[in-house]
């Protein structure tokens, strides 16, 4: 017999999210009779200002995941943040509290950290983070916890951020972990990849792509051809999703 308390609605907030990992993952999870009665759906909105209306029209929602491009934009609409989400400055999980408040959490950092840790060797000392959006903030927080210094890379150089044109052989000597936090290379534009001198990857490097569709992006393929250890974002997504599930149920 299904516990009436388990009959709850969850979903994913984002834009152009028909490809979503989360919907498939949680729908499959909820097909297990232990979780029967739960449902998960996509809430695809064209701009963040529609979030208030979404909440108003769906009063029975109990939790949301948040994806591109709203991990930072959603914060002003929330009542409070967890300590780590506040430090990170990005939210990918929202809990609807018993008092009706919306509380933001970040489980991206947890998923990334847990999936990266088994790959680390003593020579993996510094990281390059490609991109400066919400996902990159969770990655940076995880690297801080792992005591791995990092530098951000963007199309335009700013304070504490270098641009792609500055990356050369010396950069690859100094940074042994390269993490793609941009959407470049995701389906359907699978031939695209970040603008890097891929010939400088070696077996001493880790190439990590937060993208999971396709499973092997052009970024990962080119790095692998030079001997690098590669990792896509699939395990990170599973770990962060299960962490979100625990948050919704605590």
What does this structure look like?
With 250 residues, this protein is an alpha/beta fold. It contains eight helices and twelve strands. The chain has helices at 21-30, 51-57, 83-88, 108-116, 134-145, 169-174, 218-225, 234-249, and strands at 9-14, 39-44, 61-66, 80-81, 93-96, 102-105, 127-130, 150-154, 161-163, 177-180, 206-209, 229-231. The protein has a six-stranded mixed sheet. A six-stranded parallel sheet has the order 9-8-7-10-11-12, sandwiched between helices. Helix 4 packs across helix 8. The longest helix has 16 residues, at 234-249. The chain starts with 8 loop residues before the first strand and ends with a helix.
Mean pLDDT: 94
Stretches with pLDDT under 50, minimum 5 residues: 1-5
Largest sheet: 6 strands, mixed
Shape: elongated
Q: Structural class, please?
A: alpha/beta
Distance between the termini: 22 Å
H and E string: EHEHEEHEEHEHEEHEEHEH
Binned, the helix content reads: 25-40%
